[in-house]
Amino acid sequence: MLFIQIITMQYDKSKRSGETMRRINSVRFAPLQNTPANLTGAEYFLHDDRFRKPKAFPAEERFSVTYRVFVAKSGDFYHIHYTDRPAHQHFKPVITLSPGEYGRIVYNERAVTFDGEWYYIRTTINFLSAGKEKYRTKMFCRKNADKLFEDMAYLRYCGDKYRK
Fold this sequence. Notes:
Helices cover 5% and strands 41% of the residues. By secondary structure, it is mostly beta strands. The chain has one domain.
């Protein structure tokens, strides 16, 4: 079974420096809510901090986690694919998890509100390939992942890309 935790943090440019950014960058995992999970017949367990209840999904060959990340299962292995250009749908495999392994994908992006204000999003996705008996509220609270993929894009907002 693959356990997945998504942590999404949104902030604006006034918080892009100092102590606030250090705190945002230090968040890598969080305990799950203490709600019982029905894992009967499930292959994927998804906890997204933007929604109240975690969800369990049945076995599928491919599973979309976010619009940038999807999982393909092959035997006991989970192949996690990522794209930095979602519009092109060109996904590449970045992590392969065998049973008992813990992986993490971290990426950031920039977006704009309807009134033209820029904001930034940092997404951390934790993956744990384990049996159903391993479900705990603190199952993702390991500091270091066995496998890590980061796509920390340069998020300029004032045309300073070529400044040194």
